[in-house]
Specification:
Pfam families: Ricin_B_lectin (PF00652)
Oligomer: single chain
Largest sheet: 6 strands, antiparallel
Signal peptide: 1-24
Keywords: Signal
Strand content: 35-45%
Distance between the termini: 44 Å
Organism: Caballeronia hypogeia
Domain Ricin B lectin: 28-165
């Protein structure tokens, strides 16, 4: 009887896994929104001619908000590109000693471009890089404007909880 109850609980638990957690294991194109800023702002590329900077912008049908995630490698890391910047540019950590700023840079075999998508519950995920390790997560800068992102110490912060919406 006890085993039956445990099995039933496991079935219910498995059925309640959010779609985003399942999708997090698949290659595809996603729109990224954040628990802190809500579903109206998406991770985007600043269209300034250089096209290397990121921000959070009003969600829309924009190629800078279409994030292409590769299938995870054997260690669970993947690259992240946008339709706007193309296949040759990847989301990367600026290696400046602080290692908390992000940019789009030429794709290569760099640990700052190797992203891990970690289920965080309630349909959210945390995004970390191989370069900065498990201690830093993609986060929204809480400065009143709330339109910039950085890598910050991981914690139970809504700015680090991302939703991946399959496009």
């Amino acid at each position: 009887m006890r085993i039956t109850k445990i099995a039933a609980c496991l079935v219910v638990l498995c059925m309640s896994v959010p779609v985003t957690a399942v999708h997090a294991q698949q290659a595809g194109t996603y729109r990224l929104t954040n628990a802190f800023t809500g579903m109206a702002k998406c991770l985007d590329i600043v269209n300034d001619g250089r096209n290397t900077q990121l921000n959070l912008a009003t969600c829309g049908n924009y190629s800078g908000q279409a994030w292409n995630m590769s299938a995870p490698d054997s260690q669970g890391y993947r690259s992240m590109r946008t339709d706007f910047t193309g296949r040759g540019m990847c989301l990367d950590v600026v290696n400046d000693g602080r290692n908390n700023q992000l940019e789009m840079a030429r794709c290569g075999n760099f640990t700052g471009q190797a992203w891990h998508v970690e289920p965080a519950g309630n349909g959210s995920v945390r995004l970390r890089t191989q370069f900065t390790g498990s201690s830093r997560c993609l986060d929204v800068v809480n400065d009143g404007r709330n339109d910039r992102v950085q890598l910050a110490s991981c914690g139970n912060y809504s700015g680090q909880l991302w939703t991946l919406e399959r496009m």
